[in-house]
Amino acid sequence: MAKVKFCAVFGARPVSEQMRPYFEGADCVIAADGGLMNLRALGVEPDVCLGDYDSGPMPEGREGVIVLPRQKDDTDMHYAARRILAMGAKRAVLLGGMGGRLDHTLANLATLVYLTEHGVDAILADERCEARVLLRGEHSVPPREGWYLSLFPVGGSARVTLRDVFYELQSETLTASFPLGVSNEFSDKNASITVEEGALYLLICKKEPERF
Amino acid sequence: MAKVKFCAVFGARPVSEQMRPYFEGADCVIAADGGLMNLRALGVEPDVCLGDYDSGPMPEGREGVIVLPRQKDDTDMHYAARRILAMGAKRAVLLGGMGGRLDHTLANLATLVYLTEHGVDAILADERCEARVLLRGEHSVPPREGWYLSLFPVGGSARVTLRDVFYELQSETLTASFPLGVSNEFSDKNASITVEEGALYLLICKKEPERF
Lengths: 212, 212
Known about the structure:
Chain A is of the alpha/beta class. Chain A has helices spanning 20-23, 35-42, 76-86, 102-117; strands at 6-10, 28-32, 48-51, 65-67, 91-95, 121-125, 129-134, 137-141, 147-153, 157-163, 169-175, 184-185, 191-197, 200-206.
Protein backbone atom coordinates (compact mmCIF):
# COMPACT_ATOMS: atom_id res chain seq x y z
CA MET A 1 0.00 0.00 0.00
CA ALA A 2 1.41 3.38 -0.96
CA LYS A 3 2.25 5.68 1.92
CA VAL A 4 -0.01 8.70 2.34
CA LYS A 5 1.88 11.83 1.38
CA PHE A 6 2.12 14.19 4.34
CA CYS A 7 3.11 17.86 4.01
CA ALA A 8 3.86 20.48 6.66
CA VAL A 9 3.53 24.17 5.84
CA PHE A 10 5.08 26.78 8.13
CA GLY A 11 3.78 30.35 8.36
CA ALA A 12 5.49 33.27 10.10
CA ARG A 13 3.98 33.09 13.60
CA PRO A 14 6.38 31.55 16.12
CA VAL A 15 6.29 27.73 16.26
CA SER A 16 7.83 26.22 19.40
CA GLU A 17 9.75 22.99 19.86
CA GLN A 18 6.61 21.65 21.54
CA MET A 19 4.96 21.45 18.09
CA ARG A 20 7.50 18.94 16.72
CA PRO A 21 5.12 15.93 16.98
CA TYR A 22 2.79 17.73 14.56
CA PHE A 23 5.31 17.82 11.71
CA GLU A 24 7.58 14.88 12.41
CA GLY A 25 7.65 12.42 9.55
CA ALA A 26 6.49 14.96 6.95
CA ASP A 27 7.40 13.97 3.40
CA CYS A 28 7.52 17.59 2.37
CA VAL A 29 8.16 20.75 4.36
CA ILE A 30 7.23 24.15 2.93
CA ALA A 31 8.31 27.50 4.35
CA ALA A 32 5.67 30.12 3.50
CA ASP A 33 7.54 33.44 3.55
CA GLY A 34 8.56 34.25 7.15
CA GLY A 35 7.95 30.59 8.08
CA LEU A 36 11.59 30.02 7.13
CA MET A 37 12.62 31.63 10.43
CA ASN A 38 10.65 28.98 12.30
CA LEU A 39 12.32 26.17 10.38
CA ARG A 40 15.78 27.59 11.01
CA ALA A 41 15.06 27.83 14.74
CA LEU A 42 13.77 24.24 14.74
CA GLY A 43 16.73 22.99 12.70
CA VAL A 44 14.51 21.70 9.90
CA GLU A 45 15.47 22.02 6.24
CA PRO A 46 12.50 23.04 4.05
CA ASP A 47 12.01 21.35 0.67
CA VAL A 48 10.41 24.46 -0.77
CA CYS A 49 10.53 28.13 0.28
CA LEU A 50 7.89 30.39 -1.19
CA GLY A 51 6.64 33.90 -0.67
CA ASP A 52 6.78 37.43 -1.99
CA TYR A 53 9.41 38.20 0.66
CA ASP A 54 8.01 41.67 1.21
CA SER A 55 8.45 41.48 4.96
CA GLY A 56 11.78 39.69 5.22
CA PRO A 57 14.91 38.79 3.29
CA MET A 58 14.71 36.28 0.44
CA PRO A 59 16.51 33.00 1.14
CA GLU A 60 19.77 33.07 -0.82
CA GLY A 61 22.12 30.44 -2.17
CA ARG A 62 19.65 27.58 -2.08
CA GLU A 63 17.38 25.61 -4.36
CA GLY A 64 13.64 25.28 -4.09
CA VAL A 65 12.86 28.99 -3.73
CA ILE A 66 9.68 30.23 -5.40
CA VAL A 67 9.34 34.00 -5.48
CA LEU A 68 5.70 35.02 -5.77
CA PRO A 69 4.61 38.38 -7.14
CA ARG A 70 3.56 40.95 -4.54
CA GLN A 71 0.33 41.54 -6.37
CA LYS A 72 -1.53 38.26 -6.30
CA ASP A 73 -4.87 36.78 -5.29
CA ASP A 74 -3.42 33.92 -3.21
CA THR A 75 -1.93 34.38 0.22
CA ASP A 76 1.42 32.59 0.60
CA MET A 77 -0.28 29.90 2.70
CA HIS A 78 -2.97 29.39 0.06
CA TYR A 79 -0.36 29.14 -2.68
CA ALA A 80 1.42 26.51 -0.59
CA ALA A 81 -1.88 24.63 -0.26
CA ARG A 82 -2.33 24.55 -4.05
CA ARG A 83 1.22 23.32 -4.35
CA ILE A 84 0.88 20.44 -1.90
CA LEU A 85 -2.37 19.41 -3.62
CA ALA A 86 -0.50 19.31 -6.93
CA MET A 87 2.15 17.17 -5.23
CA GLY A 88 -0.52 14.65 -4.23
CA ALA A 89 -0.58 15.35 -0.48
CA LYS A 90 -3.33 13.51 1.40
CA ARG A 91 -2.45 14.82 4.85
CA ALA A 92 -1.31 18.32 5.83
CA VAL A 93 -0.51 20.40 8.87
CA LEU A 94 -0.43 24.21 8.78
CA LEU A 95 1.70 25.75 11.53
CA GLY A 96 2.61 29.32 12.45
CA GLY A 97 -0.67 30.49 10.99
CA MET A 98 -2.97 31.58 13.76
CA GLY A 99 -3.26 33.69 16.87
CA GLY A 100 -1.63 36.80 15.44
CA ARG A 101 -3.27 39.23 13.07
CA LEU A 102 -6.90 38.18 12.71
CA ASP A 103 -6.86 38.68 8.92
CA HIS A 104 -4.10 36.06 8.63
CA THR A 105 -5.91 33.65 10.95
CA LEU A 106 -9.18 33.92 8.99
CA ALA A 107 -7.33 33.58 5.66
CA ASN A 108 -5.65 30.41 6.94
CA LEU A 109 -8.99 29.00 8.08
CA ALA A 110 -10.19 29.50 4.48
CA THR A 111 -7.13 27.59 3.26
CA LEU A 112 -8.00 24.82 5.73
CA VAL A 113 -11.51 24.62 4.22
CA TYR A 114 -9.95 24.53 0.73
CA LEU A 115 -7.62 21.64 1.56
CA THR A 116 -10.36 19.65 3.31
CA GLU A 117 -12.77 20.13 0.40
CA HIS A 118 -10.02 18.78 -1.86
CA GLY A 119 -9.74 15.57 0.11
CA VAL A 120 -6.74 16.43 2.28
CA ASP A 121 -6.84 15.48 5.97
CA ALA A 122 -5.69 18.92 7.14
CA ILE A 123 -5.21 20.70 10.45
CA LEU A 124 -4.19 24.22 11.44
CA ALA A 125 -2.52 24.17 14.83
CA ASP A 126 -0.68 26.20 17.42
CA GLU A 127 0.37 25.40 21.01
CA ARG A 128 -3.16 25.90 22.34
CA CYS A 129 -5.56 24.85 19.59
CA GLU A 130 -6.07 22.45 16.71
CA ALA A 131 -8.56 23.37 14.00
CA ARG A 132 -10.07 20.97 11.45
CA VAL A 133 -12.98 21.20 9.04
CA LEU A 134 -15.70 18.57 9.26
CA LEU A 135 -17.69 18.03 6.09
CA ARG A 136 -21.13 16.41 5.94
CA GLY A 137 -21.11 12.94 7.47
CA GLU A 138 -20.13 11.14 10.65
CA HIS A 139 -16.99 11.92 12.60
CA SER A 140 -15.49 10.43 15.74
CA VAL A 141 -13.07 12.37 17.94
CA PRO A 142 -11.07 10.67 20.72
CA PRO A 143 -11.41 12.37 24.10
CA ARG A 144 -8.50 14.47 25.30
CA GLU A 145 -8.06 15.20 28.99
CA GLY A 146 -7.62 18.90 29.72
CA TRP A 147 -8.88 20.10 26.33
CA TYR A 148 -12.18 21.59 25.19
CA LEU A 149 -14.02 20.73 22.01
CA SER A 150 -15.79 23.51 20.08
CA LEU A 151 -17.83 23.63 16.88
CA PHE A 152 -18.51 26.63 14.63
CA PRO A 153 -20.35 26.73 11.30
CA VAL A 154 -18.10 27.27 8.27
CA GLY A 155 -20.99 28.84 6.34
CA GLY A 156 -23.87 30.88 7.72
CA SER A 157 -25.29 27.84 9.48
CA ALA A 158 -24.75 24.10 9.92
CA ARG A 159 -26.92 21.36 11.41
CA VAL A 160 -25.28 18.89 13.74
CA THR A 161 -25.95 16.03 16.10
CA LEU A 162 -23.33 15.77 18.82
CA ARG A 163 -23.15 12.83 21.24
CA ASP A 164 -20.95 11.46 24.01
CA VAL A 165 -19.87 14.90 25.21
CA PHE A 166 -21.09 17.02 28.12
CA TYR A 167 -23.42 19.30 26.14
CA GLU A 168 -25.13 17.14 23.53
CA LEU A 169 -26.93 18.51 20.48
CA GLN A 170 -29.77 16.79 18.64
CA SER A 171 -30.03 17.98 15.04
CA GLU A 172 -29.34 21.53 16.20
CA THR A 173 -28.50 24.43 13.90
CA LEU A 174 -25.34 26.39 14.68
CA THR A 175 -25.35 29.94 13.33
CA ALA A 176 -22.81 32.69 12.73
CA SER A 177 -24.36 34.92 15.41
CA PHE A 178 -24.41 32.67 18.46
CA PRO A 179 -21.46 30.60 19.72
CA LEU A 180 -23.56 27.69 20.97
CA GLY A 181 -20.91 25.08 20.14
CA VAL A 182 -18.07 26.60 22.18
CA SER A 183 -16.14 24.97 25.08
CA ASN A 184 -17.78 21.56 25.22
CA GLU A 185 -16.33 18.86 27.48
CA PHE A 186 -15.27 15.40 26.38
CA SER A 187 -16.69 12.31 28.09
CA ASP A 188 -14.63 9.13 28.41
CA LYS A 189 -15.91 7.96 25.00
CA ASN A 190 -15.10 9.26 21.54
CA ALA A 191 -17.17 12.36 20.74
CA SER A 192 -19.60 11.50 17.96
CA ILE A 193 -20.27 14.37 15.55
CA THR A 194 -22.73 14.02 12.68
CA VAL A 195 -22.76 16.96 10.31
CA GLU A 196 -26.22 16.87 8.74
CA GLU A 197 -26.07 20.11 6.78
CA GLY A 198 -23.21 22.45 5.93
CA ALA A 199 -19.71 22.09 7.36
CA LEU A 200 -18.11 22.82 10.73
CA TYR A 201 -14.86 24.02 12.15
CA LEU A 202 -13.85 21.59 14.90
CA LEU A 203 -11.55 23.23 17.43
CA ILE A 204 -9.80 21.33 20.19
CA CYS A 205 -8.25 23.81 22.60
CA LYS A 206 -6.30 23.55 25.81
CA LYS A 207 -8.05 24.52 29.04
CA GLU A 208 -5.91 27.37 30.21
CA PRO A 209 -6.73 30.92 31.18
CA GLU A 210 -6.71 33.36 28.27
CA ARG A 211 -4.38 35.71 30.03
CA PHE A 212 -1.29 33.58 30.08
CA MET B 1 -30.97 64.81 20.94
CA ALA B 2 -30.27 61.88 23.23
CA LYS B 3 -26.68 60.73 23.41
CA VAL B 4 -25.97 57.34 21.88
CA LYS B 5 -25.25 54.86 24.63
CA PHE B 6 -21.74 53.44 24.29
CA CYS B 7 -20.56 50.31 26.13
CA ALA B 8 -17.12 48.76 26.43
CA VAL B 9 -16.76 45.06 27.26
CA PHE B 10 -13.41 43.69 28.42
CA GLY B 11 -12.40 40.06 27.97
CA ALA B 12 -9.41 38.33 29.53
CA ARG B 13 -6.73 38.79 26.85
CA PRO B 14 -4.28 41.56 27.73
CA VAL B 15 -5.41 45.08 26.73
CA SER B 16 -2.64 47.67 26.63
CA GLU B 17 -2.72 51.37 27.47
CA GLN B 18 -2.54 51.96 23.72
CA MET B 19 -6.18 50.84 23.44
CA ARG B 20 -7.49 53.64 25.66
CA PRO B 21 -8.92 55.70 22.75
CA TYR B 22 -11.19 52.74 21.94
CA PHE B 23 -13.01 52.82 25.27
CA GLU B 24 -12.68 56.43 26.40
CA GLY B 25 -16.05 58.05 26.95
CA ALA B 26 -17.89 54.75 27.44
CA ASP B 27 -21.16 55.14 29.34
CA CYS B 28 -20.89 51.62 30.63
CA VAL B 29 -17.87 49.38 31.21
CA ILE B 30 -18.34 45.63 31.66
CA ALA B 31 -15.67 43.21 32.88
CA ALA B 32 -16.34 39.78 31.42
CA ASP B 33 -14.69 37.32 33.83
CA GLY B 34 -10.87 37.73 33.60
CA GLY B 35 -11.39 41.12 31.90
CA LEU B 36 -11.41 42.60 35.39
CA MET B 37 -7.61 42.21 35.50
CA ASN B 38 -7.34 44.43 32.42
CA LEU B 39 -9.50 47.10 33.99
CA ARG B 40 -7.50 47.08 37.21
CA ALA B 41 -4.26 47.49 35.25
CA LEU B 42 -5.78 50.35 33.28
CA GLY B 43 -7.20 52.01 36.41
CA VAL B 44 -10.77 51.83 35.12
CA GLU B 45 -13.69 51.00 37.41
CA PRO B 46 -16.20 48.62 35.77
CA ASP B 47 -19.93 49.23 36.16
CA VAL B 48 -20.67 45.52 35.95
CA CYS B 49 -18.50 42.44 36.52
CA LEU B 50 -19.84 39.17 35.19
CA GLY B 51 -18.60 35.66 34.67
CA ASP B 52 -18.61 32.17 36.10
CA TYR B 53 -15.22 32.94 37.66
CA ASP B 54 -14.00 29.42 37.00
CA SER B 55 -10.55 30.59 35.98
CA GLY B 56 -9.94 33.35 38.49
CA PRO B 57 -11.10 34.75 41.81
CA MET B 58 -14.52 36.33 42.12
CA PRO B 59 -14.45 40.11 42.72
CA GLU B 60 -15.29 40.64 46.38
CA GLY B 61 -16.67 43.51 48.39
CA ARG B 62 -18.21 45.36 45.49
CA GLU B 63 -21.57 45.91 43.85
CA GLY B 64 -22.50 45.05 40.29
CA VAL B 65 -21.18 41.50 40.28
CA ILE B 66 -23.20 38.95 38.31
CA VAL B 67 -22.15 35.36 38.90
CA LEU B 68 -23.12 33.19 35.95
CA PRO B 69 -23.58 29.41 36.23
CA ARG B 70 -20.69 27.32 34.91
CA GLN B 71 -23.09 25.31 32.80
CA LYS B 72 -24.62 27.74 30.35
CA ASP B 73 -25.11 28.25 26.63
CA ASP B 74 -23.76 31.83 26.53
CA THR B 75 -20.09 32.67 26.72
CA ASP B 76 -19.36 35.47 29.20
CA MET B 77 -18.83 37.87 26.28
CA HIS B 78 -22.14 36.87 24.71
CA TYR B 79 -23.94 37.32 28.00
CA ALA B 80 -22.39 40.78 28.25
CA ALA B 81 -23.65 41.51 24.73
CA ARG B 82 -27.22 40.59 25.69
CA ARG B 83 -26.87 42.80 28.73
CA ILE B 84 -25.70 45.90 26.86
CA LEU B 85 -28.51 45.39 24.33
CA ALA B 86 -31.00 45.33 27.21
CA MET B 87 -29.38 48.54 28.49
CA GLY B 88 -30.08 50.22 25.15
CA ALA B 89 -26.49 50.41 23.88
CA LYS B 90 -26.16 51.65 20.31
CA ARG B 91 -22.38 51.51 20.12
CA ALA B 92 -20.04 48.89 21.58
CA VAL B 93 -16.39 47.92 21.66
CA LEU B 94 -15.23 44.42 22.63
CA LEU B 95 -11.63 44.34 23.89
CA GLY B 96 -9.38 41.55 25.19
CA GLY B 97 -11.27 39.09 23.03
CA MET B 98 -9.06 37.96 20.17
CA GLY B 99 -5.65 36.65 19.25
CA GLY B 100 -5.48 33.99 21.95
CA ARG B 101 -7.30 30.68 21.87
CA LEU B 102 -9.00 30.40 18.50
CA ASP B 103 -12.25 29.10 20.04
CA HIS B 104 -12.57 32.33 22.04
CA THR B 105 -11.78 34.48 19.01
CA LEU B 106 -14.39 32.73 16.85
CA ALA B 107 -16.97 32.88 19.65
CA ASN B 108 -16.36 36.62 19.99
CA LEU B 109 -16.75 37.10 16.24
CA ALA B 110 -20.17 35.43 16.60
CA THR B 111 -21.02 37.90 19.37
CA LEU B 112 -19.94 40.73 17.05
CA VAL B 113 -22.37 39.44 14.39
CA TYR B 114 -25.11 39.22 17.05
CA LEU B 115 -24.62 42.82 18.20
CA THR B 116 -24.48 44.16 14.64
CA GLU B 117 -27.64 42.28 13.63
CA HIS B 118 -29.33 43.89 16.64
CA GLY B 119 -28.50 47.39 15.44
CA VAL B 120 -25.40 48.06 17.54
CA ASP B 121 -22.41 49.74 15.90
CA ALA B 122 -19.92 47.22 17.28
CA ILE B 123 -16.23 46.48 16.90
CA LEU B 124 -13.90 43.80 18.26
CA ALA B 125 -10.38 45.17 18.50
CA ASP B 126 -6.85 44.50 19.67
CA GLU B 127 -3.58 46.37 19.13
CA ARG B 128 -3.23 45.08 15.56
CA CYS B 129 -6.73 44.64 14.16
CA GLU B 130 -10.25 46.03 14.22
CA ALA B 131 -13.11 43.76 13.17
CA ARG B 132 -16.61 44.87 12.21
CA VAL B 133 -19.54 43.18 10.53
CA LEU B 134 -20.97 44.78 7.39
CA LEU B 135 -24.58 43.92 6.63
CA ARG B 136 -26.21 44.25 3.23
CA GLY B 137 -25.97 47.79 1.88
CA GLU B 138 -23.39 50.50 1.18
CA HIS B 139 -20.48 51.22 3.49
CA SER B 140 -17.71 53.79 3.35
CA VAL B 141 -14.41 53.29 5.17
CA PRO B 142 -11.89 56.14 5.58
CA PRO B 143 -8.36 55.23 4.41
CA ARG B 144 -5.78 54.49 7.07
CA GLU B 145 -2.09 54.82 6.28
CA GLY B 146 -0.11 51.73 7.24
CA TRP B 147 -3.13 49.45 7.61
CA TYR B 148 -4.62 46.75 5.38
CA LEU B 149 -8.30 46.24 4.70
CA SER B 150 -9.64 42.65 4.45
CA LEU B 151 -13.07 41.17 3.82
CA PHE B 152 -14.33 37.68 4.70
CA PRO B 153 -17.84 36.24 4.29
CA VAL B 154 -19.77 35.79 7.55
CA GLY B 155 -21.81 32.98 6.00
CA GLY B 156 -20.71 30.49 3.37
CA SER B 157 -20.53 33.22 0.75
CA ALA B 158 -21.18 36.92 0.23
CA ARG B 159 -21.35 39.08 -2.90
CA VAL B 160 -19.57 42.41 -2.82
CA THR B 161 -18.56 45.35 -4.95
CA LEU B 162 -15.44 47.05 -3.64
CA ARG B 163 -14.16 50.37 -5.04
CA ASP B 164 -11.48 52.97 -4.37
CA VAL B 165 -8.97 50.42 -3.06
CA PHE B 166 -6.00 48.75 -4.74
CA TYR B 167 -7.72 45.44 -5.59
CA GLU B 168 -11.25 46.28 -6.69
CA LEU B 169 -14.07 43.76 -6.88
CA GLN B 170 -17.11 43.99 -9.15
CA SER B 171 -20.05 42.00 -7.80
CA GLU B 172 -17.66 39.22 -6.80
CA THR B 173 -18.57 36.31 -4.54
CA LEU B 174 -16.32 35.70 -1.53
CA THR B 175 -16.40 32.13 -0.23
CA ALA B 176 -15.31 30.30 2.92
CA SER B 177 -12.61 28.35 1.04
CA PHE B 178 -10.62 31.10 -0.66
CA PRO B 179 -9.30 34.24 1.09
CA LEU B 180 -9.71 36.53 -1.93
CA GLY B 181 -10.54 39.58 0.16
CA VAL B 182 -7.41 39.58 2.33
CA SER B 183 -4.77 42.36 2.63
CA ASN B 184 -6.20 44.99 0.32
CA GLU B 185 -4.62 48.44 0.19
CA PHE B 186 -6.44 51.71 0.77
CA SER B 187 -6.30 54.48 -1.84
CA ASP B 188 -6.46 58.14 -0.81
CA LYS B 189 -10.26 58.02 -0.99
CA ASN B 190 -12.74 56.31 1.31
CA ALA B 191 -13.06 52.61 0.44
CA SER B 192 -16.54 51.98 -0.94
CA ILE B 193 -17.98 48.58 -0.01
CA THR B 194 -21.38 47.46 -1.24
CA VAL B 195 -22.57 44.20 0.27
CA GLU B 196 -25.01 42.82 -2.31
CA GLU B 197 -25.68 39.46 -0.70
CA GLY B 198 -24.88 38.03 2.73
CA ALA B 199 -22.70 39.81 5.26
CA LEU B 200 -18.97 40.44 5.63
CA TYR B 201 -16.36 40.70 8.32
CA LEU B 202 -14.39 43.88 7.67
CA LEU B 203 -10.92 43.70 9.18
CA ILE B 204 -8.55 46.64 9.33
CA CYS B 205 -5.12 45.40 10.39
CA LYS B 206 -1.75 47.02 10.92
CA LYS B 207 0.96 46.30 8.38
CA GLU B 208 3.56 44.64 10.54
CA PRO B 209 5.35 41.34 10.26
CA GLU B 210 3.50 38.44 11.89
CA ARG B 211 6.55 37.44 13.87
CA PHE B 212 6.81 40.45 16.14
